[in-house]
Structure formats: structure tokens, C-alpha cells
Design goal:
The chain is α/β, with parallel strands linked by helices. The chain has 16 helices and 14 strands. Strands 1, 2, 3, 4, 5, 6, 7 and 14 form an eight-stranded mixed sheet that branches. The chain has a six-stranded mixed sheet with strand order 8-9-10-11-12-13. Helix 11 links the parallel strand 3 (256-258) and strand 4. The chain starts with 5 loop residues before the first helix and ends with a helix.
């Protein structure tokens, strides 16, 4: 489309705008209905454009650039080149989905399927995937969020794509008679999600305190004094009254950065607080392994000062906690000094034993991956904890999307979730996705809440993403096969 006509150029700008509308359905800006509007505009423009596969590929890619460029803006603070590459690569996935759609005789059916599969690919590839700026995240506060109990983020994304493509047919008189059916289907989906199984109350609550030490954002570990972070969290913890009768105190991700936590003064200080409050602490630590690696873990400090269970983070942030292709990048002269060492990936099940309670744990980045939360529930977790650290980022794009992702994980698993960060946002989230006691950015605050413990599981906790991916793939393949057979018959 390099020699495009004015009409073709208009279409490019229009689909870019449709992508931007979709982006602004995301936190922190978002109003969830914008997802449907953006997708409907994209589907309408694509439908009226040339059906040449190359044209459809370009339109799909430009739409996704308009969506991902703002929605993934947080990545710029990690790696500007990585941000540009990620936006273009993930946009290309949706360009391919649009190409596939153009090969079908039923784009209203094929398009949502293909684009949802593009999202599934983005959630896992490359370098483990980047499941942010997703339609599911945008729908965390919508009436449809209950569907994630059945099919997780992919089912939620598919429904948004499908209704967006259906809405694109509204200008066509032949399609208007199907509008009542679409509305009735939407109401039915809301009801199904609302009444889907979501676990049961265990008739037990834990009195939990989370500690947000506060402090500035936009900081890096290599340019800050790690002891300052510890001091802020100790100061906040010492505000807790001895008589609170707590069952657990949760500190954020990697607020303690030491060579060896067991031998550190920080362990002694936390042990003293655990003894004073007569409650175990769940604390985020970073320890040295060697000159190349460090660990990022959440560890239990008991009231007697001993160390209890430990979980080492499995899902690491690409270009944040490890540098993919480090040797190649160094050879090319790319700057990798901001991350001098890589985090060593853990191998444990995503859970912790805290006193007599098993909890699921998703450290920071891991909360964007539904499988990490499901793993903790499979291990017997009666609640979820998401200790995180968003202090490296400026603004609230990532932090707001993380709260939305925590809401999705709570709904998907039927569990209460505690998110705690050194500089915000921290909050309690109910199994229905309601957010309580959300802190402000850079605020120093301690929040105490009685958190109901739950048992049982949702359908999605049992099945995961694989059945959805298989079903979507089979449907796309079937629609393409039918279209190919009909083309061969017409010849």
C-alpha cells in the first residue's frame, strides 16, 4: 500500500484511530465499552476495504499498532528498542489474523476466532509472552468478567471480538434482524458468568495486614540504596498495634536486597516484628547467586525468627529481570548495563505454606499469567497473594493494568487476592473482582482486613487455556477448509 490512494490512506488512519479507541478502553484511561467500539470500527473499515490478503494484513497490523503503542507504553521504561520491537511484532500477529480472515467466506465468524488466537500467541511468545494491554484486562470491570470463571482471558477476549464484529454489521439492513438475538446472547452470557461455579466459603477468615512503604517511582535498583526501602517498610510496620491479633503480614516483592537473607540484619529486624505481632511475615527478597544470577523470592519468616516456606519467581520480566539474547545484544553494542545480572528462574509450585494455611503466590509479573494463579489453587491455595514492585515505572499504565489483572485472577480462581507494592498500587480483591482499600501511588500505608478463605475451584481453574485454544483452532481450520472447498468447486 506504499502507492496508496487517498481512500486507502484514509482507511489506514481510520483503523489506527480504531486501535487507539481500543487502547483507551484499557486502564488507566479506560471505559470498557470502548473495546467493542474500536473493534466494530476496525471490522467495518476492513469489510469495506479491498479483500486482497495483503491489504487486510496491513489494516490488521495498523489497527493493532494503534492499540498496543499506548497500551504497552510502560515497556519504554524497560527498553525503548524492546518496546518498538514488541509493538510491531504483536501487531504483526493481528495482521496475520486479518490475512486469515480475508481467506474465509464468513469474516464475522472467522475474524474473532483468528484474532483471539493471535492474542493467545502473544500471551506466550516470544520470551514467555506479554499478556498486557489485552481485551480481557480492559473488561475486568465489565459485566462480562464472570465469563473468565469458565474460559479465562481467552474466552473473555473472544466474546469481545465476536460482538465487535457483529456490531460492525449493523449498517447492513440484512443484519439488523439479528440484533435482538445478539442482545439476548449478551444478556445470557452475563448471566452464565455470574452464576458459574466459583468455589465455596471455607468458613474461616485470616486477619491480614499488607505493608506499602511508599517512596518515589521511576527508580532503578542500580541507582538506589536498597536499605532505604527496608527502612520505609519497617517504619510502616511499626505503626501496627501489638493488639491487632494478625494471622499474616505481607511485604512487597524484593524490598530486601542482600547477599544472604538468613545471615542478614534484615531477617533479624523482621523476626523481631513477627515476634511482636505474633504473626508470620511473607517477605519479598532478592539474594545473590553468583556474578551472573540473582534470585527473586517470597519467603516466610516465622514468629520465632526461623525461615519457613519459600517460593522463587518462575516467570521473569524480559528486559526487566533478564536479558534475552544477552550475548548477541552485547556483541551488537546494545546497552544492557541497566540489568547487569539475570534473575534465576525458580522451579517450585506457585504456593506457600504460612502457618497452617496454604496460599497461592504470583510474584509481580506472574499475575498477568493466569496459569500461575491456577497452579497455586491446584496446590490447595485458599487465597492468592501478588507481591509486586512497580517502582521502576513512571506513571500508572502498568500498575493500573496489574490491578485489573489481579481482578481477573481473583474471578478466575474464586479466591480473594492481596496485591502489595512498595509504591502502589496495593489492594484487596474479592472473588467477584471488587477492589478494596486501594492505596495511592507513593503513599506509605498499612491496611488490615479479614480475608475469607475459600475452597473448591472454577471450571477455568480445572481446565486452563488448552481446551479454548484447541476449540478456536479447530473452528478456524474448519471455516478455512470450507472456503477452500467452495473456491475449488467454483473453478
Amino acid at each position: 500500500m506504499s502507492n496508496s490512494s487517498p481512500t486507502q490512506r484514509w482507511r489506514l488512519w481510520a483503523v489506527l484511530g480504531a486501535g487507539a479507541i481500543t487502547a483507551f478502553s484499557l486502564p488507566p484511561w479506560g471505559w470498557w465499552p470502548l473495546s467493542y467500539i474500536g473493534i466494530a470500527l476496525f471490522a467495518m473499515i476492513s469489510r469495506n476495504a479491498s479483500q486482497r490478503p495483503r491489504t487486510q494484513f496491513v489494516l490488521g497490523m495498523v489497527f493493532a499498532i494503534g492499540w498496543f503503542a499506548p497500551g504497552m507504553g510502560w515497556m519504554w521504561f524497560l527498553t525503548p528498542p524492546g518496546y518498538l520491537i514488541a509493538v510491531l511484532l504483536f501487531a504483526m500477529f493481528h495482521g496475520i489474523a486479518a490475512f486469515i480472515t480475508s481467506r474465509s467466506e464468513h469474516p464475522t465468524l472467522t475474524g474473532p476466532l483468528a484474532h483471539t488466537l493471535a492474542e493467545a500467541l502473544r500471551f506466550s511468545f516470544p520470551f514467555g509472552g506479554v499478556p498486557l494491554a489485552s481485551l480481557a484486562v480492559a473488561q475486568a470491570s465489565s459485566p462480562l468478567v464472570g465469563l473468565s470463571r469458565i474460559g479465562g482471558p481467552l474466552l473473555l477476549s473472544y466474546v469481545v471480538w465476536q460482538f465487535g464484529f457483529i456490531a460492525a454489521r449493523w449498517p447492513f439492513a440484512t443484519a439488523r434482524r439479528h440484533v435482538p438475538i445478539a442482545i439476548a446472547s449478551l444478556i445470557a452470557l452475563v448471566a452464565i458468568g455470574a452464576y458459574a461455579p466459583n468455589g465455596t466459603d471455607a468458613n474461616k477468615s485470616l486477619r491480614i495486614a499488607f505493608v506499602q512503604g511508599g517512596g518515589p517511582q521511576g527508580t532503578l535498583a542500580i541507582s538506589t540504596n536498597s536499605r532505604d526501602v527496608v527502612e520505609r517498610h519497617l517504619a510502616a510496620t511499626r505503626l501496627i498495634d501489638d493488639a491487632e491479633q494478625l494471622d499474616m503480614v505481607v511485604w512487597p516483592e524484593n524490598v530486601i536486597d542482600v547477599d544472604s537473607f538468613y545471615e542478614s540484619v534484615e531477617r533479624e529486624e523482621i523476626a523481631a516484628e513477627a515476634k511482636r505481632l505474633n504473626a508470620p511475615f511473607v517477605v519479598g527478597i532478592t539474594e545473590d547467586v553468583d556474578a551472573r544470577f540473582f534470585t527473586n523470592a517470597q519467603i516466610v519468616v516465622n514468629q520465632d525468627g526461623t525461615l519457613g516456606d519459600r517460593y522463587d519467581k518462575v516467570r521473569r520480566v524480559p528486559f526487566g529481570e533478564f536479558v534475552p539474547l544477552r550475548g548477541v545484544l552485547e556483541w551488537l553494542g546494545a546497552p544492557v548495563d541497566r540489568i547487569p545480572r539475570d534473575a534465576q528462574a525458580g522451579t517450585d509450585i506457585a504456593s506457600l505454606q504460612v502457618a497452617d494455611t496454604k496460599i497461592g503466590v504470583a510474584i509481580s509479573w506472574e499475575v498477568f499469567f493466569s496459569g500461575r494463579a491456577n497452579e497455586g489453587i491446584d496446590a490447595g491455595g485458599s487465597m492468592l497473594v501478588n507481591p509486586t514492585n512497580g517502582s521502576s515505572y513512571t506513571g500508572t499504565v502498568l500498575q493500573s493494568q496489574q490491578i485489573a489483572s489481579s481482578r481477573l485472577r481473583a474471578v478466575e480462581t474464586g479466591r480473594w487476592l492481596v496485591q502489595v507494592s512498595p509504591t502502589g498500587f496495593s489492594a484487596f480483591v474479592s472473588p467477584n473482582g471488587e477492589v478494596f482499600d486501594r492505596t495511592a501511588v507513593s503513599e506509605q500505608r498499612v491496611v488490615i482486613r479479614d480475608v475469607p478463605q475459600r475452597t473448591g475451584s472454577t471450571l477455568y481453574s480445572q481446565l486452563g487455556d488448552q481446551p479454548i485454544i484447541i476449540l478456536l483452532t479447530a473452528l478456524v481450520a474448519s471455516l478455512l477448509w470450507v472456503a477452500r472447498r467452495r473456491r475449488s468447486w467454483s473453478m
